[in-house]
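User: Could you check the structure of this?
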Amino acid sequence: MTELGPRPRSLPVAPLAKPSRTRLPLAPAARPGLDEVRPIYAVWELTLRCDLACRHCGSRAGRARPDELTTAEALDMVRQLADLGIREVTVIGGEAYLREDWDEICAALVTAGIDTSMTTGGRGITRERAQRAKDAGLGTVSVSIDGLAATHDRLRAVQGSHRAAIEALEHFAAVGLPISVNTQICRPNRKEIEPLLELIHPLGIHSWQVQITVAMGRAADEPELLLQPYEMIEVMPMVMRLQERCDEVRVRLWPGTNIGYFGPYEGRLRRHMPSGHSKGCGAGRDTLGLEANGDIKGCPSLPSDAYVGGNVREHGLRAVWERAQALRFTRGRTTEDLWGFCAGCYYADVCKAGCTWTGHVLFGRRGNNPICHHRALELMTAGQLERIVKVDAAPGEPFDHARFEVVVEPWPAEELRRAREIAASGRGWLDD
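Assistant: Sure, the predicted structure tokens are below.
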């Protein structure tokens, strides 16, 4: 039985995005040693236009931005990305393929020596579009699948979208493109994640990225979609079981930046990282986000109002990267902006509250992130749990967020016993 209730009719499906942000101030010069760092990876929203209206969509995608880059401007962006030293780009939307010149842009990225991939919901992928992706030189394509058929279709708000996603994987594989899957873990699908692996790995995927649904955009309108902080106690053992099963079927599991942190599974889940553990938020250090109108952020997921540092039309990519304060916040960062539980955490100087996106959209400021395995375990030891409660609604704009508060309360005795059993054994669900 799915926990996903009927879709509210008042939900603003596709608001019109604001125009690009201009006249944002830049520092007069780059700081030696700090702003000379160069990103290696960029995520580029080619258009905000979309053919789905997903209930957990942080960007509220649907309608194109009013001032998206022209083809000539996009091709010049490719030149600037290469000049900045970007090695890899993932094109996204909305749906990237709804922009007519999407494959021309991808081909230009490849020609510039940049490894290029695409992430898609897959609804409109035909064999012809798959072949265009192959001909453009894409190295791989990731299709978003968020559960088994009924749950996925409810989350994506389109009947048949699950079948279309599976067919998209088949189309890409048929033309010889490597394929992968990405999945958001939320309350309605959390018990379907392990069965989902058994559905997708026979399709020949090489990797699978999982991350937590974040309280941004439409997801902020329906807080029942969101995992509660204490549920990390059951989610993280499940992710570790996924890792073990993925090893068996030769699929690489990629835990997203907001999966974790620093619980008993961290070393095994982050074994692909040089450090073997989370290194905190990389926005504006090794990653870069580009919006379809040329606005530049340190991470594509961050709220636009707070984190756009400038626009490529006005300043150029390099100047914004080196001199925009909104992209500098992780460079030379200390623990001074941490607050709440994170300020006193044992791992504060390494983690620095983990994923900035996840924490900021809950509270309207960075520095505290309750969606944390270590934190949930520490509180459980003291017989406490945290809940997030929405106190102010989101305004209904792309990349917006509501405001939540954290409530700390004692675990009921029987639920505490069950939670400790799950933490010790790595098995089971709190609500079984």
